[in-house]
Amino acid sequence: MRTSVRIWLVVGVSLVLSAWTAATVLSGASALVVALPMVGTVWMLIVLDSGYLLGRQWAHRRRRRVGRPQRAAWTPAPEIRRPIDYPNVLPRPAGDTVVDRQGRFRATGIRLAVLPALAVTCLTVQTVFLEHGGDLGLGFVLAECLLLVSMVWTVWTSQEPSQPWVTSRVRAELFRREMFLLLAAVGPYLGRTDREAEQVRDARLSLLAASGPADLSAFARLCDRGSDGAESHWQDAVRLRGDGGVPVADAETSERMRTYLDYRIRRQSLFFELAAGACERTEDRLGRTAKATILAAVAVAVAYAVLLQSGRGGDGPSGTSAVVALLAAGLPPLCNMALAVQNLFASQRLAASYRETRQELLGHENTLRRLLAEPAGAELAVSFRSLVVRVESTLTEELRRWRIIVAKTEFEAGL
């Protein structure tokens, strides 16, 4: 959904809520009064969902502005050839929008985390502030039922909710990996002529485009499987076959090494640096929010206990005691909501994985720079191919860890 559509959606439901509220106040019709809390609940859910996605787009643009100097520092020199300038190397085909899939997954998870807190709030408002049997009280009870039904329906119908996001990113990363395997002539392209490499490339890209989650896991393995089921790791193949049997000019080998250094290792290092920083900032904000909510809940619980002990409530509770009772009932679910959102984002674990992968890439970068300083020859080509397999193994392992961290069989909503 486009940004402008989301904005108009928020404006539209806000106008509907305003009109409904005005009609309720002016007419006082029982049906309008009963439906008002439900209309307000629907408005709140739509605003929450669209508001998060709009805020996400704004935050994404802001991160790009903030990270512009770091990306500018990465920009390769003009004489460094791009990967797609080499024979047989194709750009990654346009596919799914990973950011939208991630945003939809997280927006749904946030909505599920908020629903229990809203349900408790509706019940508390009806119990503390409204008369039993009144139209507005009935409306809040029905609003609570609507929230709970929505939560149950979403959890039951959203099996494997992260799978579209995971599949999209894994496929995109494997498309990108294939481009660099072809560039370095390793893995399935070791020892292939240009014609043979083109045929293998087309077959693998077609297979990758049609692969499901299980097939992608098998495709990600850095080995070839024989007809007897035995696996041959690409690293072993590089050592056994040496230069692969297809001669490559020394100048071209050095050129490919510089391309791989800038467009694969350094670019991925930049991505992990920026991603780790974003995750750490998110974790810090969510952690502070969770701690503040917990402390507020403790303070309100103590205050409510003091009010109960002093007997100020009486038969008709004062406005102060009613507000304190509402906060005492509503803050614990808010604490749970903050912790659920923190677990949904898993920012701390993702940041640790990104930092670890970046450190490994820095080690590979130093190794490749040392290789670039060595004299050209067949031995250098073999060392380069061996390093490429190690780099791709590092990135594939990061992808495996990422999938374990973010994949969910269902949303966690206490059901």
The helix/strand class is mainly alpha
- Counting DSSP H or I runs of 4 or more residues, the number of helices is 13
- C-alpha termini separation: 30 Å
Task: Count the E strands.
Answer: 2
Low-confidence stretches: none
Q: Globular, elongated, flat, extended or rod-shaped: what is the shape? A: elongated
**Global mean pLDDT:** 87
Report the major sheet.
2 strands, antiparallel
Q: Per DSSP, what share of the residues sits in E-state strands of 2 or more residues?
A: under 5%
Order of helices and strands: HHHHHHHHEEHHHHH
The radius of gyration over CA amounts to 29 Å
Helix content: over 70%
Largest sheet: spatial strand order: 1-2
Describe the structure in brief.
This protein has 415 residues and is mainly α. Helix content is 77%, strand content 1%.
Textual characterization of the structure:
The protein has 415 residues and is mainly α. The protein is built from 13 helices and two strands. The chain starts with a helix and ends in a 9-residue tail after the last helix. Strand 1 (223-225) and strand 2 (231-233) form a beta hairpin.
Topology:
Layout: H1 3-27, H2 30-66, H3 68-74, H4 98-128, H5 135-157, H6 163-184, H7 194-209, H8 213-219, E1 223-225, E2 231-233, H9 234-241, H10 250-310, H11 319-345, H12 347-372, H13 378-406
Antiparallel strand pairs: 1-2
Helix pairs in contact: 1-2, 2-4, 2-5, 4-5, 4-6, 4-11, 6-7, 6-13, 9-13, 10-11, 10-12, 10-13, 12-13
